[in-house]
Amino acid sequence: MAVLECPSCNEILEVEPPDRIHSAFSSAKPMPKSFHGKIIQKRVRCKNKDCKKTVTIYWYAPITYFCRV
After folding, report:
1. What total of structural domains would you count in the chain?
2. Residue 64 in this model has a pLDDT that exceeds 90
3. Which has the higher per-residue pLDDT, 67 or 36?
4. In a 10 Å sphere around its CB, with 0-12 CB exposed, 13-18 middle and 19+ buried, how is residue 54 labelled?
5. SS3 letters across 6-69
6. Which of 27, 34, 51, 59 could connect to 46 by a Cys-Cys bridge, CB 3.0–4.6 Å?
7. What angle do CA 10, 39, 25 make, to 5 degrees?
8. Which of 29, 31, 35, 32 is nearest to 57 (CA)?
9. Predicted pLDDT at 63
10. Of 46, 56, 52, which Cα lies nearest the Cα of 25?
11. What would the mean pLDDT of 2-9 be, rounded to a whole number?
């Protein structure tokens, strides 16, 4: 599980990675050649009843994940 804040209201959002490989996340697309495979884009709706904004999260497999010994 990952914890992040809504950029609009700072509400805490708990999100689950789509799988074990896509363990890193960002609110902006990762730089080319910094990840392996495809980026999985997920949209999460803020649970704050006064906000309800949609936050886009980019899940990816960082290159360093595959460089483990």
Report:
1. 1
2. no
3. 36
4. exposed
5. CCCCCCEEEECCCCCCCCEEECCCCCCCCEEEEEEEEEEECCCCCCCCEEEEEEEEEHHHHHCC
6. 51
7. 30
8. 29
9. 83
10. 56
11. 92
- Domain residues for 49? 2-67
Q: How far is it, in rounded angstroms, from Cα 3 to Cα 16? A: 9
By residue count, the chain amounts to: 69
Task: Please enumerate in sequence order all residues whose Cβ is within 8 A of that of 53, keeping only pairs 6 or more positions apart, or say none.
Answer: 6, 7, 8, 9, 45, 46
pLDDT at 49: 94
Residue in 53, 56, 30, 28 with CA at minimum distance from that of residue 43: 56
69 vs 21, residue with greater confidence: 21
Structure tokens at 48: 């704050």
Spatial separation of the C-alpha atoms in residues 68 and 64, rounded to whole Å: 7
